[in-house]
């Protein structure tokens, strides 16, 4: 009730009214808001009811139990609503259904219910990249990559797949592993024969409310009407799947640029697609069902390039990806998720539960440049993917958007190329220069505005997005930073007849510095807890060439639709890590999910191809809340030396420390687990994680905070590791003991780390702890926040 009332007051602004009117309006708004809230309690909306771990049993009996639970809160005169949108019965229990707010509240009080939350829509967080990772590792790849087996199965939860593409051919692959329990669902445009020994499974989901209902002869009850197909109509799922495990494809390119051999991170691995998303996003209930199915089907790794907005993050037990990933980890499945595209602000990283492998996005050593040539001969190298027919022999009039504003349109709107802001008579035949001071108007919209005004091209001034090329198809387009933009504006203002031309895109190889953190990549600390350092790692996510659906959109003149696309986003970074995880898993099939994560984190690179520390796209130094442990190095991860194994008990202790009640945690775990005595959020830093984050280091009296870690030797039997510390000025970091001696593989050893501030400034500081035996360097990065 209170929330509705506050929202109404915020929208209507009573501070603009007289005192008498103010009082009258306040009375009216209270009355109206109470009515609205009361009404909202009666309107049924989709909710997810999560009921914890499953203990076996008959699936039909479990669905009947879910229907019985649902019928206990729905009034008898609305029994037609006793139906399940989704039912979860493989790795965990629960269902989704249409509920009113009151009914949801009632269910949340049931002893066997862990959480009830609205079925939110999650967002998609949308080659050369693998060669770049191999080169940066400094290790020759053929011998090491020959270790890979083809028994690793990656489940992709996304928008579907285009199975005919060569990236999904199964040439040379052996029979499908006998442990596989999945299926290849048919649709009107998808046959069982579209699956093969590479694409071994494909499912799709409907969000119909009537998916599961009790038997009924009532003619007013809707019948099941299944529809759909695993086929991708967006391109996102096809792109992520081929990035993770696409087969090798020679002579791949996007209309002649980014040419070479396209391949996934683990070309020998199998793929299973779970189509849970469309262009509009992904229903939470459907994503949760897809994870449940993937676990039961027998995947080894799950790749999820979707997530909530950082503004609307839920707690760990009201987040479908967090819930599903926890139970996947219980079954030994590595879950890799994109960290989100809400950067570069801090506290924007999503999918940040400690049992999720969270990925940031970076650039690679390739750039796409579109040169702008002014009438005076000056040249500016902008960023874009365009296949225009412009050449230096013909120039076109050049105009600033604000100078060709439509009648009664503010100059500021026209300069941003708002829809309807440009006078077509003034803009026709000219190249427009627009700014991007309002990010709510996307580059695609600005380009459409220029095209609609019959402009000959567009130059966009945007300091933030300039490193991420926009694909404008055949329309001449180039993006520049503010310095170049100011020079072009000065030219316009100082020349009687300014002119320019925008040349087609050229590929620039061996671009430096790379990698760099992408501007859009979400940053830590995590909003839910700062005691786990997130993101975990970063991987290529800018201008990634991979397979995509053939589309007529933006096809250059005289060309056929490409079966490849160049996309950017943490969506693209995520499958790089999933593929790397599959590669490590294929060499070490008995390693747990956390062992694979540890190997990729502790061997990650923190330098670029200039040999210097990693930076952001702006050139500023990057910190570990930007990069995580650093850029993944899959080849190095094959031999990490020692690893940090984070167990299910660690994750359950985390839930205790975070503040969840013991009974809820037992329901989640499906065991008689008991929380430690006196759990506290301060103890989260001591769960056995491959990185360290101290959310609150007290500066008074130079207090000491101690965390502990346990490592397992996966290297040579007789190994001795010594420690070195890279600590920021004013922070004392002491590790005890300073030597770890191992006499056999699988042997464990523990150590403590003391953190003490002396002259350190308030806020976060960063450093690392490195264990080395001469052959291996095992790096644990840390972030410490001085209060």
TrEMBL record:
Q: Which UniProt keywords apply?
A: Hydrolase, Protease, Serine protease, Signal
Indicate the transmembrane segments per the record.
none
| Domain named Subtilisin-like protease fibronectin type-III: residues | 687-784
Residues of the Peptidase S8/S53 domain = 150-609
Q: Name one GO biological process term.
A: proteolysis
Q: Does the keyword Ribonucleoprotein apply?
A: no
Write out the catalytic residues in the record: 158 (charge relay system), 236 (charge relay system), 571 (charge relay system)
Quote the InterPro entries the UniProt record gives: Peptidase_S8/S53_dom, Peptidase_S8_Ser-AS, Peptidases_S8_3, S8pro/Inhibitor_I9, SBT, Subtilisin-like_FN3
Family the UniProt entry places it in: Belongs to the peptidase S8 family.
- The name of this protein is CO(2)-response secreted protease-like
This protein's species is Zingiber officinale
């Amino acid at each position: 009730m209170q929330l509705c009332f506050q929202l109404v007051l915020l929208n209507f602004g009573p501070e603009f009214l007289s005192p008498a009117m103010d009082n009258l309006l306040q009375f009216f708004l209270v009355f109206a808001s109470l009515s609205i809230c009361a009404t909202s309690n009666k309107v049924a909306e989709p909710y997810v009811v999560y009921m914890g771990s499953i203990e076996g049993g008959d699936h039909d009996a479990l669905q009947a139990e879910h229907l019985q639970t649902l019928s206990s809160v729905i009034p008898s005169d609305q029994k037609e609503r006793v139906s399940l949108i989704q039912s979860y019965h493989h790795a965990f229990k629960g269902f989704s259904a249409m509920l009113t707010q009151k009914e949801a509240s009632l269910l949340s009080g049931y002893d066997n219910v862990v959480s009830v939350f609205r079925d939110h829509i999650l967002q998609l967080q949308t080659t050369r990249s693998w060669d770049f990772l191999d080169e940066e590792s400094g290790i020759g790849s053929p011998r090491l990559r020959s270790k890979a087996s083809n028994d690793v199965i990656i489940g992709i939860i996304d928008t579907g797949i285009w199975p005919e593409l060569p990236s999904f051919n199964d040439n040379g692959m052996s029979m499908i592993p006998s442990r596989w329990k999945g299926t290849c669902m048919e649709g009107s445009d998808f046959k069982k024969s579209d699956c093969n020994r590479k694409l071994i499974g494909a499912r799709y989901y409907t969000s119909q409310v009537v998916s599961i209902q009790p038997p009924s002869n009532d003619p007013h009850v809707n019948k099941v009407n299944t529809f759909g197909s695993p086929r991708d109509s967006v391109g996102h799922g096809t792109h992520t799947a081929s990035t993770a495990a696409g087969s090798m494809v020679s002579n791949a390119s996007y209309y002649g640029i980014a040419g070479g051999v396209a391949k996934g991170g683990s070309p020998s691995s199998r793929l299973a697609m779970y189509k849970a998303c469309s262009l509009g996003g992904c229903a939470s209930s459907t994503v949760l069902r897809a994870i449940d199915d993937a676990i039961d089907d027998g995947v080894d790794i799950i790749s999820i390039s979707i997530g909530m907005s950082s503004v609307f993050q839920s707690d760990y037990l009201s987040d479908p990806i967090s819930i599903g990933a926890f139970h996947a980890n219980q079954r030994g499945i590595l879950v890799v998720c994109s960290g989100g595209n809400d950067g570069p602000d801090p506290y924007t990283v999503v999918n940040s539960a400690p049992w999720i492998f969270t990925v940031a996005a970076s650039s690679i050593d390739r750039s796409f440049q579109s040169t702008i040539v002014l009438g005076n001969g000056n040249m500016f190298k902008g960023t874009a993917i365009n296949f225009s027919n412009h050449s230096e022999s013909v120039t076109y009039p050049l105009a600033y958007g604000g100078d060709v504003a439509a009648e009664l349109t503010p100059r500021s709107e026209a300069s941003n190329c708002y829809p309807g802001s440009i006078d077509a008579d003034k803009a026709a035949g000219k190249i427009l220069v627009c700014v991007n001071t309002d990010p709510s108007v996307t580059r695609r919209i600005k380009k459409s505005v220029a095209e609609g005004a019959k402009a000959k091209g567009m130059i966009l001034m945007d300091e933030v997005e300039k490193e991420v090329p926009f694909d404008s198809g055949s329309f001449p387009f180039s993006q520049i930073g503010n310095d170049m933009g100011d020079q072009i504006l000065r030219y316009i203002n100082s020349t009687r007849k300014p002119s320019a031309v925008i040349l087609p895109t050229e590929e620039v190889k061996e671009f430096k510095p790379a990698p760099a953190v992408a501007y859009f990549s979400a940053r830590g600390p995590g909003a839910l807890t700062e005691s786990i350092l997130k993101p975990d790692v970063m991987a290529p996510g800018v201008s990634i060439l991979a397979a995509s659906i053939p589309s007529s959109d933006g096809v250059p003149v005289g060309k056929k639709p490409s079966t490849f696309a160049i996309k950017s986003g943490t969506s693209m970074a995520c499958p790089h890590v999933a593929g790397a995880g599959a590669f490590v898993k294929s060499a070490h099939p008995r390693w747990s999910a956390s062992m694979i994560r540890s190997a990729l984190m502790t061997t990650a690179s923190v330098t670029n191809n200039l040999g210097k520390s990693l930076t952001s796209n702006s050139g500023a130094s990057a910190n570990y809340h930007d990069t995580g442990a650093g850029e993944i190095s899959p080849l190095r991860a094959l031999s990490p030396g020692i690893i940090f194994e984070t167990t299910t008990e660690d994750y359950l202790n985390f839930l205790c420390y975070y503040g969840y009640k013991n009974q809820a945690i037992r329901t989640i775990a499906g065991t008689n687990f008991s929380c430690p005595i006196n759990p506290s959020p301060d103890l989260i830093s001591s769960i056995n994680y491959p990185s360290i984050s101290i959310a609150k280091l007290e500066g008074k009296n130079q207090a000491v905070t101690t965390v502990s870690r346990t490592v397992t030797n996966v290297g040579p039997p007789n190994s001795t590791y010594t420690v070195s510390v890279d600590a920021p000025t004013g922070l004392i970091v002491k590790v005890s003991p300073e030597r770890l001696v191992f006499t056999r593989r699988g042997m464990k050893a523990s150590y403590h780390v003391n953190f003490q501030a002396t002259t350190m400034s308030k806020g976060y500081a960063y450093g690392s702890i490195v264990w080395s035996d001469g052959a291996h360097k095992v790096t644990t990065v840390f972030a410490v926040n001085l209060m």
